[in-house]
TrEMBL record:
Any one GO biological process: cell wall organization
Segments forming domain Enolpyruvate transferase: 6-407
Residues recorded with modification 2-(S-cysteinyl)pyruvic acid O-phosphothioketal: C117
Main location: cytoplasm
Job description of the protein: Cell wall formation. Adds enolpyruvyl to UDP-N-acetylglucosamine.
Pathway the protein acts in: Cell wall biogenesis; peptidoglycan biosynthesis
Keywords: Cell cycle, Cell division, Cell shape, Cell wall biogenesis/degradation, Cytoplasm, Peptidoglycan synthesis, Pyruvate, Transferase
Record's GO cellular component terms: cytoplasm
Origin superkingdom: Bacteria
Gene symbol of the encoding locus: murA
Binding-site list for UDP-N-acetyl-alpha-D-glucosamine: R93, R122, P123, I124, D125, Q126, D306, V328
Protein name stated in the entry: UDP-N-acetylglucosamine 1-carboxyvinyltransferase
The family this protein is said to belong to: Belongs to the EPSP synthase family. MurA subfamily.
Amino acid sequence: MEKIIVRGGKRLSGTVKVEGAKNAVLPVLAATLLASDGKSVIRDVPTLSDVYTINQVLRSLNAEVEFKNNTVVVDASRELEIEAPFEYVRKMRASVLVMGSLLARNGRSRVALPGGCAIGSRPIDQHLKGFEAMGATVKVGNGFIEAEALDGLHGAKIYLDFPSVGATENIMMAAVLAKGITTLENAAKEPEIVDLANFLNKMGAKVRGAGTGTIRIEGVNLLFGVEHSIIPDRVEAGTFMVAAAITGGNVLVKGAVPEHLSSVIAKMEEMGVIIEEEEEGLRVIGPDKMKAVDIKTMPHPGFPTDMQSQMMALLLRAQGTSMITETVFENRFMHVEEFRRMNADIKIDGRSVIMNGPSGLQGAEVAATDLRAAAALILTGLVADGVTRVTELKHLDRGYVGFHEKLAALGADIERVKEADEIFASEKFVSDMNA
Ligand SMILES: CC(=O)N[C@H]1[C@@H](OP(=O)(O)OP(=O)(O)OC[C@H]2O[C@@H](n3ccc(=O)[nH]c3=O)[C@H](O)[C@@H]2O)O[C@H](CO)[C@@H](O)[C@@H]1O
Ligand SMILES: C=C(OP(=O)(O)O)C(=O)O
């Protein structure tokens, strides 16, 4: 078993560079399946386990995929298969994003049902409602969702009950090759939706209004492979902003896009963190004392749920009582118990978490319960007294490239070890002491 070992107490300083966004690259790679002519060349792709998984999904669908030097080249010009197996969907829920493209290209798709997840039940009813409105028949059985529109999809008016990011993306991908016009109301407005729309439009699609609540898609006959660079990862950027603030450090987060991070910047500034826009990114300077604030997660441009656990780590250091209310996922507080193991004064009250700070944080062995919880526990370890060991790193590797290396380069006392290495290190320590 691998662990990250952090010894708290170092102020971080220097520059850290943000990777391409996980949540932008996954739908963009799913959309490469729409190109029946030519190759798609996707740049600034992060080397994340989720990217390897989606690449495997594309290969299992008969696309040719090459990934090197942060560039993925996809040739989807051959006849495609229709089935995304459970093996991949189980590892990564975003695998369901191939449904829209497969329906548009093949008139059929068969994707394993994703099942529950540590942060909530995460149904995909809004995706399916959109496909049905466009003329598909949807059947669920034997652990698979099958959608069929053998005469092709047609444009439709679709209203989402909630501005779901995945449903907006999947419906956009289905609609770009449909006959006629699709209007999507109450669409998600996240920057990753805009990135996907930009990619689709370069491929020859006609998508208007991405980034607003109404997206209008006029179907076209053919899409072709093009080049595209993925936007910077706003969640990774936000995570390093918290790393700088929590340690009272001074860090330039290179590549951070201020417009993508406005709610995070606003809340951190409310706490007393100094954030300056520089040409290359955002400089974050942590004060010695921070104020308590209340936060409610919301769809974009509200405060992102993917920054909730990292901000919780930061608020554990603030003076006074803070409250975080999670409105996007019903069960995204699994990390609270782990924070408590680190001596945090924190409790769950329904969909809110209440913290009394500053907590006298202590190092402990803790387990990551999801991707952002992994990052949040490591951030807490940066300021806890003594040693923190974080396990279940498979979650971290889904969304962060070289997280411990980047923190170490900023001055953190942090390493990633295999359990056997750790035993060896402590044996060596004892024998060195005895020598
Ligand atoms: C790969 C990717 O981009 N993942 C992001 C995406 O996930 P994802 O696309 O899965 O998130 P959604 O916006 O779809 O989900 C938000 C909420 O809507 C519910 N819902 C969603 C679809 C549906 O058909 N029915 C339904 O009830 C979900 O259970 C959840 O409670 O957006 C989330 C919300 O910003 C982020 O936390 C994830 O990091
Ligand atoms: C919840 C997340 O991702 P996913 O939707 O891929 O599980 C995340 O990135 O924090």
